[in-house]
Write a structure and sequence with these properties.
single chain, about 350 residues, alpha/beta, Rossmann fold, Beta-Lactamase, Helix Hairpins, 3 domains, five-stranded parallel beta sheet, five-stranded antiparallel beta sheet
């Protein structure tokens, strides 16, 4: 917004036009001239009905309404404008010959921002116009900020809708305020059925330790929390990032079930490989022991042939009993080597 100082130091903003509604021709002409001296464009009409037509043609931020008008009064028009769409987007100055306190309270209750009494004192009118300028300037700045915020929200919403991650947000009372399309898929719920609803009531399965502990920590401690957790069945795994946002919690989530399955398969394979290695080592050690025993029996047979005649048969039977576990351990070791290839 670019402001300029003209006409005695008053702020001028060209986009502001004043709609003057006064049924008395001379009063209308006088008021129009006084206002135009401050550098403003003035559209002057003689009735509320004409004013309504002008309002459909172009926007006005500042309206000056005479209380008493033919047909619909200025107070009635003020009340209707306030009740309509964008009713707060006007500054309304009511002009009246009434100076009773109750009448003035009625004008303010109808939505007038300020009033000036007849006969109009030019100095007092200037004061009222200065007040109106400050209020309208603040209104314009507020509207610009709102438009920029809406634009930013629109861009952020577009980004969140297009992201491959699920995203949802809850307020400080744990009510859903936003759910993107991917979150609808992951949660298997329509956003229309979730917005405004209590998170814990809609997803009681998420009260399990991992979910509840981390969500409540993000909310209470106002810190970002990243964690993994499964659904109630234990078959679906999520990776989640919960962080404080606007007094509530915003959550990014993605389905990592496939990744968890691959990790589990790798862990199982690693365990089997370790088991195969261990089995191979045991088989090797057992075979060495049997070889030593065999050698000692052979030596005993040579040294004491008469008393050791039954030793070979004993060893043969022992060897036969050892072969099944020995073969099993050897096969385990070989199968793990094949698996690694």
């Amino acid at each position: 917004m670019i402001w300029s100082r003209e006409f005695g130091g008053h702020f001028i903003f060209p986009e502001m036009r004043i709609l003057l509604v006064e049924d008395h021709p001379e009063s209308r002409t006088t008021l129009r001239r006084l206002i135009e001296r401050r550098g403003y464009e003035v559209v002057a009409v003689g009735s509320a009905e004409e004013a309504e037509i002008e309002l459909t043609k172009q926007p006005f931020l500042f309206l000056i309404l005479d209380w008493m008008l033919p047909g619909k009064s200025g107070v009635d028009l003020c009340r209707e404008l306030r009740a309509g769409p964008n009713g707060e987007e006007f500054f309304i100055l009511l002009v009246t010959a009434r100076d009773d306190t109750q009448d003035l309270e009625q004008a303010l209750e109808a939505g007038a921002n300020d009033y000036v009494t007849k006969p109009i004192d030019p100095a007092l009118l200037n004061v009222r116009l200065s007040v109106a300028e400050r209020r309208i300037r603040a209104l314009i700045e507020r509207n610009q900020a709102r438009a920029e915020l809406q634009e930013m929200v629109g861009k952020m919403t577009d980004i969140l809708e297009k992201t491959s991650d699920g995203f949802f947000a809850v307020d400080r009372d744990w009510r859903f305020t936003f759910v993107n399309r991917q979150a609808e898929k992951l949660l298997d719920r329509r956003r229309e059925d979730l917005i405004g609803k209590d998170f814990w009531m809609e997803f009681p399965e998420f009260t399990r330790d991992a979910f509840e502990k981390n969500y409540r920590r993000a909310m209470s401690e106002q810190v970002a929390v990243e964690f993994e957790a499964s659904d109630a069945s234990g078959k679906v795994w999520f990776e989640l990032l919960a962080y404080p946002s606007g007094g509530g919690v915003s959550v990014f989530l993605r389905d990592v079930t496939d990744r968890k399955r691959v990790e589990e398969e790798r862990l199982t394979t690693s365990k089997l490989e370790s088991l195969g290695t261990l089995a191979g080592g045991i088989a090797h050690d057992l075979n060495n022991i049997l070889t030593i025993i065999s050698g000692n029996i052979g030596l005993a047979h040579i040294v004491a042939p008469g008393s050791a005649s039954s030793l070979p048969s004993f060893f043969s039977r022992a060897r036969g009993a050892a072969n099944p576990p020995l073969n099993f351990l050897t096969n385990c070791s070989r199968s793990q080597k094949v698996a690694r290839r």
